[in-house]
Amino acid sequence: MNRTLPLILAVALFMEQMDSTVIATSLPAIAADIGTSPVTLKLALTSYLVSLAIFIPISGFMADRFGAKKVFRIAIAVFVLGSIACAFSNSLAAFVLSRFLQGMGGAMMTPVGRLVLVRAVPREQLVKAMAWLTVPALIGPIAGPPLGGFVTTYFSWHWIFLINVPIGLLGILLSGYVLPDFAREETGPLDLSGFLLCSIGASGLVFGLSVISLPALPPIVGVATVVLGVLATAFYIRHALRTPAPILNLRLFANRAFRSAILGGALFRIGVGAVPFLLPLMFQVVFGLTPFQSGLLTFASAFGAIAMKFIATTALRLGGFRVVLVAASVLGGASIAVNALFTPTTPHWIIIVVLIGSGLLRSLFFTSANALVFAELGDREASQASTISAAAQQVSIALGVAVGGGILEMSAFITGTELGMDAFVSAFLIVAALSALAAIPFLSLPPEAGSRVSGHIKRRNTVDAPAPAGE
Fold this sequence. Notes:
Helix content is 77%, strand content 0%. It is built from 20 helices and no strands. The protein has helices at 4-18, 27-34, 38-66, 68-87, 92-120, 126-154, 159-162, 164-178, 192-213, 219-240, 256-285, 291-298, 301-308, 312-338, 348-375, 379-415, 421-436, 439-443, 451-454, 456-464.
């Protein structure tokens, strides 16, 4: 396998994932500079996520119609333009619109980048290649807050976005040389009705959940938008099952491996998506750490994610998708529950060890689940699979943050006190249980599920083969 290809894709995806959280610790500085409040500026966080939700559904169609390589390079260019616009924004409206433009590029980068990898790499090497994309997806959101705080403190918040320019331009140049030119797939006309319904559904859910968890607007706005998103999603399901070529082909869920990967991945992400919100908040509110100190602690999980890259292939070859994903779900959920045992007196080295182990388990789960999405599908179905996977990812992560924030708000309302350790204990235990429930969809998988990708059955058959006569 040419490692240059997944490395280029990984750098682009890291840039996109990091920008989803990098402004979190820089909001006060940006707000003061453009003349607004930090709470109101949280709309910029939401606008980025909403843009992803709107344009991810059309990414597969664009890649098939115009070529995955071309769309990926244009997506990086749009992302870079959005970054420049963010750096030069001088008002709330300009900044929110610039973040929306960034999201348009990011929406194409993740699913199309994954599609390029699936089509370029033999199925036997997919797990090893997918690990290169899983690591930046996990490290990016964790690295964003401490990196944003560091750059804002010692330089200027503008450099949070300007640093994307040379990285993006290099990515466009290298991808032009390294990424293969895939033949364009035959596509019919754009399913415009499906695109509108799907975009309203996904963006309604993401926007509504973001407003509920980040109250920059009245909570009733978030609730109403979630209801709109649910209704639009229901209408889209009805539309997709009656349309020959829908924008998102829900008939792929008839494939058991694909269905398990999407449903199990969504459940796991709900729990895992709450952790980057809950853990830094607990470190700051209860433990009294600074944002930079809490960011450095949570970054420890990145080392576990990197270490996983060296064991995922062997683990799947020995255990297969079913065993590995069930074990990673249960143990990953347990590692989240351990966070509930932390106290202000817990030595930092113990917290770091736990977070490294947690990062390894999460990375093992996502590498395996992302590979299983494509394990039993052909190249013609890969664009749809990548798009559905990316859309499910955005909605489930937003739901995770909303669940974590909702538990804290409910705990404070019931007890009538400020946020304390008890609220965080409850939140961690609940989201840990949600992550562990991800094991259920994988229990129905046969042992040979995705064996062409994992190599599990091939190895078992080799071990079980009878010895030649005379030995």
